[in-house]
Specification:
- This protein has helices at about 5-25, 140-155, 155-170, 175-195, 195-215, 220-225, 225-255, 265-280, 290-310, 325-335, and strands at about 45-50, 60-65, 70-80, 80-90, 100-105, 110-115, 130, 135.
- It is an alpha/beta fold and about 350 residues long.
- Among the domains are: about 35-140, no CATH class; about 140-170; about 255-300, no CATH class.
- The relative contact order is 0.05.
């Protein structure tokens, strides 16, 4: 190839390469641009759909309701705990509040689209309204499904299933007639259980109620099985023995006073007669008035001090009278004071 022709070839390739480099410098992303013919024609309004995940949702994804295309995805905004899909809905189609949104696929390997399932009644959603996270479902992702299938196949689950079937075959009788009879008994047992579901439900309900009561009395149950409760239970026989001794003593006392019971009315009448003679009414129960009060004061003020420290101190005795009989007069004086009989 001659030099002039080589220069012309380089000039022809330079323009496309420059265009490609210019596009790369602008960070062109084809997924940011919807394909020709997609989208919604005519007036639209915006709805924001909150999803837990928008994995594999393509740009310009279709929005359908009842299998009919009524809008398209305009863009996605990511937030810390959710992804928000901004969709444009045909202005002639309205959805009430409470509408649900799901991610679906028409075929196993088909594109994912957004399905809107309208609520029965409610105020219509307007431009800029949001369908919250509680009313959306990202649905099963095909990648996750294929991953689980691969784990099931490669993880030996099929081999485990084969081993389980072999173990069942080893347990079952060799005679098919015995296996059929066993299956018949199992069927009868299952039939009986189905016919008594109300009793099973009653047992389960009673068990649940018992569990709840035990949970409510957990503190009391813990105390019953504690060391303090054990000590107190050990002291119960001693306590009961003391109570029985008191009952026996009271019974003995009552038996000894049986003779007094018939005489109680007479004693009561005598007390009614004697009470006014012994005591007169007083402001308090501790103040004694009447004969009993006088007797109490006599004992406290006169007799008791005299007995504790008598005030008579005989130092000498002199006889006044007939000087011829001093001994006789002395005897009379000693008898008067009680010194001699």
């Amino acid at each position: 190839m001659t030099a002039p022709r080589r220069r012309r070839l380089v000039g022809l390739l330079a323009a496309p390469l420059a265009a490609i480099l210019a596009l790369a410098g602008c960070s062109f992303d084809p997924s940011d641009h919807a394909l020709p013919g997609s989208g919604v024609s005519g007036p639209t309004y915006r709805l924001d759909l909150e999803f837990a995940s928008l994995l594999s949702l393509p740009a310009g994804a279709d929005v359908r309701s009842g299998g009919i295309s009524i809008g398209s995805l305009d863009g996605i905004t990511l937030e810390p705990e959710r992804a928000i899909a901004h969709v444009d809905i045909r202005d002639t189609v309205r959805f009430p509040r409470g509408t649900r949104a799901e991610l679906r696929q028409s075929t196993l390997l088909g594109d994912i689209y957004i399905a809107l399932m309208p609520a029965e009644t409610g105020e219509a959603l307007g431009d800029g309204d949001t369908i919250p996270l509680s009313h959306t479902d990202p649905g099963p992702q095909i990648e996750a499904m294929l991953d689980r299938i691969a784990m099931f196949v490669n993880g030996g689950s099929l081999m485990q299933l084969e081993k389980s079937i072999d173990q069942i075959n080893e347990v079952l009788p060799e005679d098919p007639a015995e296996t059929a009879a066993l299956a018949g008994h199992i069927s009868e047992d299952l039939g009986d259980a189905a016919a008594n579901l109300d009793q099973i439900d009653r047992i389960v309900t009673a068990t649940d109620g018992l569990s709840r009561r035990l949970m409510e009395t957990r503190d009391e149950m813990e105390f019953i099985f504690s060391d303090t409760a054990r000590y107190r239970l050990e002291r119960v026989p001693y306590f009961m023995d003391a109570v029985l001794n008191i009952v026996i003593d009271v019974n003995t006392l009552v038996s000894g006073l049986e003779w007094l019971i018939p005489r109680m009315p007479h004693i009561n009448r005598n007390l009614e007669i004697l009470a006014p003679l012994l005591r007169e009414p007083s402001p308090t129960a501790y103040e004694m008035r009447g004969n009993l009060g006088d007797m109490t004061r006599l004992v406290e003020d006169k007799i008791t001090p005299f007995l504790l420290g008598p005030g008579v101190d005989i130092r000498s005795v002199s006889v006044v009278g007939d000087p011829g009989q001093p001994a006789k007069d002395g005897l009379v004086l000693l008898r008067m004071v009680g010194a001699i009989p």
